[in-house]
Amino acid sequence: MNELTNLRAEAARVGAELSPLIEGLGEDEALKLSVKSLGEAGITAWAVPAAFGGAETELVGPETVSVRALCAAREELAYCNGVVDLAFIMQGLGSFTIALSGNETLGRDFLPSVASGEKIAAFAVTEQGAGSSLGEVQTTATRDGDDWLLTGVKTFISNAGVADRYSVLARTGEDETTMFSVAAEDVRVERFEVMAPHPIGEVHLEGARVPDAARLGEEGSGLKLALSTLQRFRTSVAAAACGFAQRALDESVSHLSTREQFGRPLSKFQGLRFDVAEMDARLRAAQLLVEEAASVLDEGDDATSEVARAKLIATETAGWICDRAVQLHGGLGVKKGSVVERLYREERALRIYEGTSEIQKLILAKEIFDQES
Ligand SMILES: Cc1cc2nc3c(=O)[nH]c(=O)nc-3n(C[C@H](O)[C@H](O)[C@H](O)COP(=O)(O)OP(=O)(O)OC[C@H]3O[C@@H](n4cnc5c(N)ncnc54)[C@H](O)[C@@H]3O)c2cc1C
Question: Which of 108, 256, 276, 329 has its CB surrounded by the most CB atoms within 10 Å?
Answer without folding.
Answer: 329
